[in-house]
Amino acid sequence: MIDELSKTSQSPERPLAQPAIRILGIESSCDETAAAVVENGRVILSSMVASQVDLHAQFGGVFPEVASRQHIRTIYPIIESALQQAHIGLGELDAIAVTRGPGLPGSLVIGINTAKGLALGSGLPLIGVNHLEAHIYSAWLNWPPVSDSTATITTPEPRFPIVALIVSGGHTELVFMPDHLHYQRLGATLDDAAGEAFDKVARLIGLAYPGGPSIQKASEGGNPRQFSFPRAWLEDSWSFSFSGLKTAVLREVRKLQEQNRELPVADLAASFQAAVVDVLVGKTVRAAQKLEAAEILIVGGVSANQALREAIQAQAPCPVHIPPILLCTDNAAMIACAGHYRYTSGQRDPLSMDVLPNWPLTEV
Ligand code: KG4
Ligand code: ZN
Known about the structure:
Elements: H1 2-10, E1 22-27, E2 32-39, E3 43-51, H2 53-57, H3 64-85, E4 95-101, H4 105-122, E5 126-130, H5 131-137, E6 162-167, E7 172-177, E8 184-188, H6 194-204, H7 211-219, H8 243-258, H9 265-290, E9 295-299, H10 306-315, E10 320-321, H11 325-328, H12 333-344
């Protein structure tokens, strides 16, 4: 204590170092069981993800009951690994943040009950996090990871006002974010989410689940202009629609099959991907122009898509931040990061907190 005071008096211009805030994040909303420790909202001390992709591939999509049972098997080992890798004990944490929704009810319950047990046993505060808000906050995480918050953080902090496009397997939302923790929904999908469309179209053209990475790979050898699939611009609206596009691919596939022709998988994949990317990028760019955004964020599983990343970078009227691939798909570092901003804003949730499987971002 005396040392600290004497150091301060020698260099009065330096602010007193704030103690680091360390949050354990837990994610189990869909088919990834994940745990992470994040310091001061930006520094990833550990991030562990146990994917169930192989387990669900045989069903061509996520099988909810199988997902819940697998979360039960994996959740404690994954939390233990995250704490071990961060060289931290429960007693050195400041709070436990857990995904409260949206997501599969049975999967959310596993994460939330585990978090409650840990909070009860350790006396740490519990924070319920919205999964969509966490995808947005993945843009605040520093990458590549550094050892602790005294190291230089290289990823610049996003600047407000922000236009964020959340594109995942369950959601496609265009959001205006004037400041931390404030959201105005500009538009959302009227039918399929973008990731869902990738998954369904992949199945139609005989590609493996999950469809996004399969379609991206197949597209590499394809011509994106071979098929002119429809773009649902839905004029005067920020909403999206992908079901017409999916039906157009289905019709083309049926036509080719009736003619006994081999499916030109690469061209179908590339043309479909181009149609999705055109609409996602076109609407995001227009929203950023209209709202004079200082920055665009593209987050969620589909933001891993290379064609989308290149197109938005080429067309945006302002800087674009897209997290590295490992932070685009579901992970717990983003839960801990959003949990940090919730924690510092004073949020504490009771042990009676329930899951919210349909929790809109605008109601956080
Ligand atoms: O965010 P996420 O991991 O889980 C949800 O919250 O839904 O997103 C998963 C979705 C899946 O639909 C998957 O096909 C899609 O993200 N995805 C991609 C790519 N990687 C994952 N879509 C297009 N291109 C990719 N490279
Ligand atoms: Zn997600």
